[in-house]
Write a structure and sequence with these properties.
Pfam families: Entericidin
Shape: rod-shaped
Largest sheet: none
Distance between the termini: 56 Å
Keywords: Cell membrane, Lipoprotein, Membrane, Palmitate, Signal
Organism: Yoonia maritima
Structural class: mainly alpha
GO cellular component, one term: membrane
Helix content: over 70%
Protein name: Putative small secreted protein
């Protein structure tokens, strides 16, 4: 039971990390687009 709970928490942790990375990339790309437009 404990191993199963740790596995689930690990999966959620990794997916949250990927989401944060994706948001960071989106913000960076938007900033570059604005800089290029100016």
């Amino acid at each position: 039971m404990l191993i199963r709970a740790l596995l689930v928490l690990s999966v959620f942790g990794l997916s949250a990390c990927e989401t944060v990375k994706g948001v960071g990339r989106d913000i960076t790309n938007a900033g570059e687009a604005v800089s290029d437009a100016l």
